[in-house]
Amino acid sequence: MLERSLGGWSRGWLAGLSLVLWCGASVGAAEAPAPAPAPAVTVTIDTDRAEALYRCGETARFTIAVEVPEAARAAAKAKAVLTLDGGKVLETRNLDLTKGPSTIEGTLAEPGFLQLAVSVDAAGTRGNGLAGAGFEPERIRKGSAKPADFDAFWAEGKQRLAALPLDLRQTRLDAQCTEKAEVFAISFANIDDTRIYGFLCVPRGKTGPFPAWVSVPGAGPGPLGPSGKNYAEEGVLALTMGVHAYDVGTLTRDEVQAIYKELNAPMTYSHHGAPDREKYYFRRTYLGIDRAITWLASREDFDRKHMVIDGSSQGGGSALILSGLNANITALAANVPALCDHAGLLLERSSGWPRLVKGATPEERQPYLEMAAYFDAAHFAESITIPAIVSAGFIDRTCSPSSVYAAYNELKGPKRIFNGPREGHTTKVGEYPAFLGRWVRGQLGLTEPLPPTR
Fold first, then answer.
1. What is the residue-averaged pLDDT of the chain?
2. pLDDT band, very low/low/confident/very high, at 35 (cuts 50, 70, 90)
3. Are 336 and 316 in contact (CB under 8 A)?
4. Which of 96, 117, 327, 380 is the most buried (most CB within 10 A)?
5. Looking at the predicted structure, is the pLDDT value of residue 124 above 90?
6. Of 313, 318, 332, 333, residue with least CA distance to 423
């Protein structure tokens, strides 16, 4: 899920405050000379404020400039759609490209995000642009209330799993080890006669106790390897856990990909078991990873002071969920977190990945809404008091900025959010990537901690 792509918007690049997307013609057949590429269509959208932030009731001004081949200009068609963060359509307008740049204005009376999407068709050559503007996002609230039995549901699951033997299986991966780190494939018994799998990297040639770093990958088949080896070489226990019930540690990449393809054949795994909360895919995932974290915290070589969880997209949502589940975690970093604000659509805005709530009618939606509430990172955030950093991309169509803020605003501890007015679903949101490593190392006790901190 976490990739440098936004579907039809994947080739967009912002220049200054602008989103610019280039689209050309396809390459010709290999046996014939390639035709000259068609002139590109360029769509540029500027907001009138660099930070793209406004008070409710203020007006956000979007300026749209479109460049098309001169021969196609008269026949070119351009359409602008203004929405409530990819949800409710607020305005649709056809643009006259013969009159130069166009301007569209919008405002919100309540906290939220405007999203402007522009599509252009110039004689078959297409271009797209996307821009966003936030209105007091620090006041955005989640779309549903935390269920009364939320804590009891998860406590019961943890108790059921605790009754099963741990059955730790650990295999040293000699080819992955270095002079400074030992690497192991690990797994634990999990509910429903399954196992949870991952990797553990342990400092080599050093005496503990050590701080610990935990990560869950973005959506997909992985992890396909130990992502925390660099931390282990600095003197940190590094645990990387997958969300699936197959052995990422000892299977080959081709074997993992084949199993993953089969897993998703009926539907994407993120919807397996819905709308039954007992059978939903992520229930066994988070119970299993919670067990792995508790085991990590029980190791004699853990310092019992520093445990940071760090992830992006699915991994970012996992950081929030697991921080709500496991008291051993002392700090969290969540880049463009998924699994947030599943009920955001009730407020006519876009929910975060995986958009669990289905159905065209309220009756069809209800069972999904009820189940989704138990797996909403925004509800877990209510009980989180540890330091946290989070990022949100204003043109993120996978994990919408309103869904991210709905969770972020529930956090109770020291926190900081990094906005990306130019960014979509990416690991490079604003200043977040430059800050992340320094902040995590401070929270691990390797360097002087930076705020937000205890």
1. 91
2. low
3. yes
4. 380
5. no
6. 313
Q: How far apart are CA 127 and CA 64, in angstroms?
A: 13
Residue 83 pairs in a beta bridge with 89, 115
> What whole-number distance in Å separates Cα of residue 454 and Cα of residue 447?
15
The highest-confidence range among 69-78, 151-160, 350-359, by mean pLDDT, is 151-160
84 residue type, one letter = L
Residue for token digits 């009138």?
Answer: 48
Tokens of residue 171, six digits? 């295999």
- Structural domains of the chain sorted by starting position, each given as residue range(s) with its CATH number in brackets: 7-137 (2.60.40.2550), 150-443 (3.40.50.1820)
C-alpha distances in angstroms, 256 versus 16, 245, 303? 41, 11, 34
What's the token pair of residue 141?
């609230």
Residue whose C-alpha is closest to residue 240's, from 200, 211, 202: 200
CA 420 to CA 428: how far, in whole Å?
A: 8
pLDDT tens digits for range 138-179: 999 999 999 999 999 999 999 999 999 999 999 999 999 999
Backbone angles phi, psi at 94, to 5 degrees: -90, 135
Q: Please, what is the end-to-end C-alpha distance for the chain in angstroms?
A: 32
| Beta pairing partners, 120 | 78, 127
* pTM exceeds 0.85 for this model: yes
pLDDT of residue 33: 53
> How far from the centroid of its chain's Cα atoms is residue 242's Cα?
15
C-beta of residue 290 within 8 angstroms of C-beta of residue 326: yes
Neighbours of 245 (CB within 10 A): 20
Three-state secondary-structure class, residue 298:
helix
Show the tokens assigned to 366: 């209800």
What would the two tokens of residue 64 be? 């749209």
Closest CA to 378 of 364, 390, 363: 390
Tokens of 248: 């990422």
For the cut 70, the answer to whether the pLDDT of residue 256 exceeds it is yes
| Percentage of the residues of the chain whose pLDDT score is greater than 90 | 84
Q: Which residues contact 8 (CB under 8 A, 6 or more apart)?
A: 128
